[in-house]
Amino acid sequence: MSDSPIWHPFTQHGLGEPIPQVARAEGAALYTADGRRIIDAISSWWVTTHGHCHPRIMAAVAEQAGRLDQIIFAGWTHEPAEAVAQGLRAVMPPELTRVFFSDSGSTSVEVALKMALGFWANRGEPRHRILVLEHSYHGDTIGAMSVGARGVFNAAYAPLLFDVGTIPFPAESAEQACLDALEAECAAGVVAAFIVEPLVLGAGGMLVYSAEVLVEMAAICARHGVLFIADEVMTGWGRTGTLLACEQAGVVPDILCLSKGLTGGAVPLAVTMAREPIYAAHWSADRARMFFHSSSYTANPIACAAAAANLAIWRDEPVGERVATLAARQAERLAAAATLPNVANPRALGTIAAFDIAVPDAGYLSDLAPRLLAHFREAGVLLRPLGNTLYVMPPYCIGEDDLDAIWSEIGRAVATIA
Ligand code: PLP
Q1: Which of 138, 229, 297 has the most ligand 1 atoms within 8 A of CB, as the residue to mutate?
Q2: Average pLDDT, the chain
Q3: Are 305 and 80 contacting, i.e. CB atoms less than 8 angstroms apart?
Q4: Looking at the domain assignment, is residue 119 inside a domain?
């Protein structure tokens, strides 16, 4: 047992694995309290886009912290929140006219689901069925778990989760089956919304599907008046090569969830953006029709200042070029890794590169992932396999040397461990 009273997330303390203490970070590097340099190959759980401690974001946080720390957001507003909302309106699809703040990816999903049900309830047509994609992950709060894949992660909490309709994942061989199932579900006329991770399912194993399927899925929803929710918590802010993954399909969702890279990954913040009819369904002189959702730190000014700085970086700096360069480098490294024995299903999308390690017992609880984790921890690389899936998703500022170091360590791990 360690001396620390901390209970860490997604950590089995009974395994006694070391928990390194990080003292500072810069760019793609983390520095531990005992002086080691670690390459952050997964952007600290997919959040860090421009790099750790980006000077403009840090300056904005410091400046805001000296001016206004926190203010209730029900019935009050402040300049950083207004700047973020206007900034989002300028870069996100124009159809998404409304911005609702929350604190994490999971809460942005809860908000999206409540907006969808509120929309139908206020129209006097109380639809409540939610459709989800097989293998999805949308977070760990009760609603977000309900719309995610069921498994070892949430088996203990299953009695609390609500029923959803699960649409088969559109793997290349199952695209039509996916679309047929969606069409059949939507045709029943009781579906409130369909929530998807556009183009790549993250925690489900970096599973990639085609933009054409995304187009069709959105079209089916539109035909049946089913709200289309895009959870771009992981895919947003350049991860898949474009600002939003939906862009690659020319799809504009009815509701959009953003978090992680919203602040460049520096501090927690999320938004749920909605089309005007969803807001209009709640707009009334009748208080019973308002959107009943809040949390204490909604639109925290310091977090909003970080998000405003992130938007300014996207506006002023060649972020798109950095993303394209990293995407090309990742594709090269993945192609080389794909020739190694035991490497299966190589796949890449934008800055994300992933593959599976072909071993017989590869479930989430097999000992492969902890062994890989230990290997990378000792090698000074922060990588966190998903079962037998290894993926690299670094900050966009990562240098060639660090990227080479990650991939050569992957080569060594695959050779020695698999
Ligand atoms: N949605 C997606 C697609 C995610 O990948 C995640 C987290 O990885 C979430 C929602 C939940 O975000 P958070 O961990 O900030 O609650």
Answers
A1: 138
A2: 96
A3: yes
A4: yes
